[in-house]
């Protein structure tokens, strides 16, 4: 550890450190899904995720309610497309070319090379699926290898058990709870913070690729070894 002339400890010096780039995604293609910049071509598919055909509990922990009017959804959807932060992405099933969910890169901190995965809204076709894991892997790889960010965050309502479980399964480290951090839908939210650092990515990438390998799944598509148990 280095110390200054006053005997105070200092953080490690970052040689040639510079500001990060903004995300610019056309498409990131995987074996089962493709991650694309959100666009109007995804409108009808994602109305099924946000609209009356969806399950209302999909949006319990998102700061909006189910849409029952397609015109209202259209106005909302156009705002998502136009937004640069959050930077919204569609998850497209390669076998059907249908958008089956979305998420975003948000709180984009170029100065410190930090970004958060958020606004995760999955259809029933994505939940607890290999496709969902691959989509998360593709964006994680983009953040660390293309944008070369230093820190990748995941935050969620401390009562959102599925989101907390997903963060832990995907390899994020729990850092603590920010109490009374947010008010949404006229209720309190304590926010749990998770992160992955750039120096942790190489080992986590190996785990993802072992888990996603076809050899890890039987003929019915059931995993043989869980992601958390992969060596």
UniProtKB/TrEMBL annotation:
Superkingdom to which the source organism belongs: Bacteria
Any one Gene Ontology molecular-function term assigned to this protein's record: protein N-terminal-serine acetyltransferase activity
Residue stretches making up the N-acetyltransferase domain: 33-190
Pfam families assigned to the protein according to its UniProt record, in alphabetical order: Acetyltransf_3 (PF13302)
InterPro entries from the UniProt entry: Acyl_CoA_acyltransferase, GNAT_dom, Ribosomal_N-acetyltransferase
Protein name: Protein N-acetyltransferase, RimJ/RimL family
